Amino acid sequence: MTVLSVPVRWSVLSVRRSADAELHPLAPESHIMGMPQPSASWTAEQVRLLPEDGRRYEVVAGELLVTPAPAARHQRALREVFRLLDAHLTTERFGEVLWSPADIEFDERTLVQPDLFVLPLAEGKALPNWEDVTTLLLAVEVLSPSTARYDRLTKRRLYQQQGIEYWIVDLDGRVVERWLPGSERPDILADRLEWQPDPSRPPLTLDLERVFERTWGEG
User: Which of 34, 41, 74, 130 would you label with 111, given CA atoms 20 to 30 Å apart?
Assistant: First the structure.
């Protein structure tokens, strides 16, 4: 994902005849999406009112985060990870893997849209609405240089607080940083990743070398 760093101004709450909200450009040295403004704190409800313009809008603890459409290799990496997760979950049927856009709301000031995520199945059935989602089995983000600090700090802390396993796919480094809810450091995996959220079911083993080869068009 690439950070949007151009000024954008909307009358975000025009539906409610409220004041304009403004997203200010980032400082050149900053890599965090949408620095919070001291005079304003965004809510999930406000983010839902933003225009559908191809960008991704999220809010974490009141901080507005904006990213434009992803690059092709970003999407190819997601395709490879999705394909493996989907095949496993189709057989084991304890979860469902989906992709954003989505509205995963943990509280009134936190709404996120992970690149990929796995929802638990309620009694073997998919949840009908985003409003019914209260937790995830897994969240996956594909890293880019401009989002590294955000993905590794802001979102990582959020998912750990929520008790959610979190994978950061580093395409340039050809590794996956795997964060578990209670860990202080990630597992840095380059060859294979074993995922087993339900100990009573067989694990999924991802061949990461193959994932990166296919992402970069090498095989």
Answer: 74
The whole domain housing 61 covers 8-67
Strands in the chain per DSSP E? 8-10, 21-23, 56-60, 63-67, 95-99, 104-107, 110-112, 116-120, 138-142, 165-170, 175-179, 187-189, 192-195, 204-207
Asked whether residue 1 is domain-assigned, the answer is no
- pTM exceeding 0.85: no
3-state secondary structure of 204: strand
Assigned token pair, 149: 């600090």
Residue 3 within any structural domain of the chain: no
> In this predicted model, what pLDDT tens digit does every residue of 129-177 receive, in sequence order?
888 898 999 999 998 766 777 888 899 999 999 999 999 999 999 999 9
Task: Classify strands 110-112 and 104-107 as parallel, antiparallel or unpaired.
Answer: antiparallel
Nearest CA to 120 out of 98, 94, 99 is that of 94
Residue 99 to residues 43, 182, 214, Cα–Cα distance (Å): 22, 25, 19
Query: Rounded to whole angstroms, how far apart are CA atoms 55 and 61?
Result: 20
